[in-house]
Design goal:
The chain is mainly α and 212 residues long. α1 packs antiparallel against α3, α3 runs antiparallel to α4 and α7 runs antiparallel to α8.
Length: 212
Amino acid sequence: MSSETTPPANENQPMLMICLGWFVVFGCVTLSASILIADFVVPDHDWIADTISDLGAGRYEFIVDIGLYAYSAAILCAALLAAHVHMGGKGWSIGILGLLVFGLLVFLIGARNEYGDADSDGWVIHGYLVYALGAAVAVVAFSMAKGLQRANYRYAYTLRGLGVLWVICTPAFYFLPTGIDGIYERWLGVIASAILITLAIFFIRRGHQLNA
């Protein structure tokens, strides 16, 4: 009997890329929809002044929690896609790790339920999770841009532009008056989701090209 073994196939799976890419988009849309629904359902909620975190506590917390868990799954799907379609270089690998951290942080933020309710029992880590999330999003945007440039420079420019916008806008949130920090937090969410959707569009289109 021959000791030789057949090497594993090393190829992309177009339908996997397309399906997971659309799930990334779905997760972003689900979070947006859950926030919009909660804005109307939660009594006495001011979407301009009150943050998303305020929607994640209390009787109707499950609405936003569903969106956060779907968003977390979407981010992890983006990480899975990036590992499946590795565009080369250390930056892309760092971006994969950034996506994993980003997704896990979103999950922990939803699971810990330490926001919007003046929680002070035990070790409250919500603030630290948010700081880490901000760093993770920036890492993803800048580290994966070079890899996307190998496919199309437009993806790279978009990702870098969104990364710059994120780095400029995120610190300002902590210095805003409480009367407008709710709508500003939603704006930051749009930037983060745009980064994910840019990646999703790349994977979806690449899947269709390979499947043609």
